[in-house]
Amino acid sequence: MPPLNKSAPRFFFSLLVVTVSLLPIFALEAQEGRLFKPLAFTKTFAMAAAAVLSVTLVPALMVLFVRGRIAPESRNPINRALVWIYRPVIRLVLRAKWLTVLLAVVTLAGAAIPALRLGSEFMPNLNEGTLFYIPTTLPGLSVTKAAELLQTQNRIIKSFPEVASVWGKAGRAQTATDPAPIVMFETIINLKPEDRWRSGMTFDKLVTEMDASLQFPGVSNAWTMPIKARIDMFSTGIRTPVGVKIFGKDFKELERIAREIEAILRAVPGTASAYAERVNSGYFLEIAPDRDRIARYGLSVESVQRTVALAMGAETVMATVEGRERYTVVMRYPRDVRGDPEAIASEVLFPLPSGAAVPLGDIARVEHTQGPTAIRTEDGQLAVYVFVDIRDRDLGGYVRKAQLAVATHVTFTSGYYATWSGQFEYLERARKRMIIIVPATLLITFLLLYLNFRRLSDTLIVMLSLPFSLVGGLWFMDWMGFNMSVAAAVGFIALAGVAAETGVVMLIYLHQALGETRTRCEAEGRVLSSADLHHAIMVGAVNRVRPKIMTVTAIMAGLLPILWSVGVGSEVMQRIAVPMIGGMVSSTILTLIVIPALFALVHELGAASSNSRPKRKGSTFAIKRQ
After folding, report:
1. Residue 504: which of 107, 15, 58, 50 has the closest Cα?
2. CA angle 276, 282, 286 (to 5 degrees)
3. Rounded to whole angstroms, what are the CA distances from 327 to 319, 320, 330, 340, 595?
4. Residue 494 lies in a domain
5. CATH number reported for the structural domain that contains residue 219 in this entry
6. 138 and 87 share a domain?
7. Residue 372 and residue 278: Cα distance in Å, rounded?
């Protein structure tokens, strides 16, 4: 082990690099920040505690418990096996250094294949164990028909053996925070434990079967999770993965554009459903008082409005007490009268001062009209939403195709424009933040490494470990069928810090071995030869292979249980673990094979450059080729 007074600062620098690599996670905001910042804080505090304990408690414990005869590493069977495998590999690498570097570059370039195949999404679907079914019908649906349709849908859903219970509602609840219209249903589907599902049934397959069984004319289906849906609605107002917000000044033009976009998006591959709000399709009963006639009969507008409110909307006239129970009694006209404009005009009577009565139709205009079902504004402008549910397609790739289709086929009137929202809005926010913070983090890491090694060559060698660590992570993600998401980005960020740390450790061992060899050559009064350089690399790399493999094995052992985990939250954790597991494999290969080759090339080229320049008095840096 290198002496503590020489190597400890560099080991501490490697821990600092790992901590700095977590800066992009600390820079996340909103949902992703609240989800992953605790992970970054936990890792940072754990590393700080480990660093302090390694120089305080561990040496004291070693004095107390590490006693007696200590067997050398050469007697360890695992170490002997690792050295037996690794020694011929490093010999071959030192004989073909340029070929090794060329193969490494080709491997790095080959990572473009999985990178181009990976889709993008904000966050993988978090299985909450409960489904949230949100169908939407066209305007004009009565309360009775809405109840019938809701019951029919619930019966179909309950027929699936994986369903434990179904609860649905049409319209809004008794709360001001629920503006849902009567045409929007919300159904909570509680599922049985997965061990009681049919053989071969998966969550996605179950949703697909339910969606196929719930195809009704004029009904647009959307599937999500209860908690996720509420968060999305409160954050962006969009309850589906993708939403299009159209802004303008006139509802009729907004609805025209929204319907065009709906028709275009239905043809985009990956669209499960698309529904544009019908803002001008609401049916209303309009009663417009005729002030001249009201005055002619000696009535007031206020009395007319009060009578209409009593007849149509109901008014409490008394309360009855039945024992300990109290009930209010309301009065209004029967439904047959209230639903017919002609009956309202003839049956609703107003008493006159003379004792006669005049029908409502003589003093007001009563008719059915159409108008906006709801008035939605955002940023001071009228807005209409298009809700889009997607299936079997990554979020980022779908939106790119959809944006191209809309830009090609939809013409916007001057003053009208559309923005893309939903989870895509979260994805764009995180991507813009990463574009700024990741390069800044790489620059800080580069400066820290340069302050550590004081050599540009060593700094670049360690920085090279970062893209090589991505190679294995990208291939493993492609093999698992995962999309790039914020969770996967967190895994790659954590991987980068560990990869830089292993590179620093390898260079520490190589420099220590080279320093010992150079000291021995100076004591023997000869110049460091290429054979001495290769011997130093063999000592620094081969004789220290066990601690390097131990580090990688410990990390992999901690990640594999996460990869195999199931249950709520496992989808997110797997996206973090997969890049790290694949990246640790490629990073280990780089550390054990490519870094020694680069180390040898850098020192041989540096020696050749020094030998070609006039030697200064007292200069001893040279490598003699044999």
Report:
1. 15
2. 160
3. 6, 5, 10, 29, 85
4. yes
5. 3.30.70.1430
6. no
7. 8
Dig out the tokens for 213 from the structure: 């069984």
Whole-model pTM: value is 0.74
**Between helices 545-563 and 570-589, what is the axis angle to 10°?**
160
Residue with tokens 């006159």: 352
Q: Are 96 and 174 in the same domain?
A: no
Distance CA 221, CA 233 (A): 17
Same domain, 106 and 133: no
DSSP assigned state of 592: I
End residue of a domain, out of 341, 371, 401: 371
pLDDT tens track for 551-600 = 778 888 888 888 787 767 777 888 888 888 888 888 888 778 888 888 88
Residue 490 falls in which region: left (phi positive, over 0), alpha (psi -120 to 50) or beta: alpha
CA distances from 509 to 72, 194, 200, 457, 503 (A): 18, 51, 52, 16, 10
In this structure, which amino acid lies at residue 385?
Y
Residue 510 within a domain: yes
Q: How far apart are CA 181 and CA 187, in angstroms?
A: 14
Examine residue 208 and state whether it is found in any structural domain, yes or no: yes
Q: Residue 466: which domain range? A: 77-110+455-611
SS (H, E, C) 324-383: CEEEEEEECCCHHHHCCHHHHHHHCEEECCCCCEEEHHHHEEEEEEEECCCCCEECCEEE
Q: Give me the count of residues in the chain.
A: 626
pLDDT one-digit tens code per residue, 143-177: 888 888 888 989 999 889 888 889 888 877 776 66
**Domain final position from 209, 224, 239:** 224
The domain tally of the chain equals 3
Angle 268-269-272 from CA coordinates, rounded to 5°: 90
Same domain, 152 and 287: no
